[in-house]
Design goal:
The chain is mainly alpha-helical. It has 3 helices and no strands. It has a single domain, classed as Four Helix Bundle (Hemerythrin (Met), subunit A).
Length: 78
């Protein structure tokens, strides 16, 4: 049963990674990157890796996305 969840999460992760690269607007790419990071964390959780899950959520889904959004906001002000 876990294999079905793994394959489903892998498919969604690949789809959102593709969208993060191919979307025209940068804010849509950032949202796709956020979803990709959360899906990767869920994949780690299914694979029984809780520390990797927490690290993925804190660093990538949290810090990197916030850093990108703050940078976009700062650039837009100029």
């Amino acid at each position: 049963m876990a294999e079905i969840y793994e394959l489903f999460l892998i498919g969604l992760t690949l789809l959102t990674a593709f969208l993060a690269v191919k979307l025209e607007r940068i804010i849509h790419s950032v949202v796709a990157f956020l979803f990709m990071s959360v899906l990767t964390a869920l994949l780690f959780l299914v694979l029984n890796a809780p520390y990797a899950t927490i690290f993925q959520l804190l660093v990538y889904a949290g810090a990197v996305v916030v850093l990108i959004l703050i940078t976009l906001h700062t650039i837009k002000r100029w």
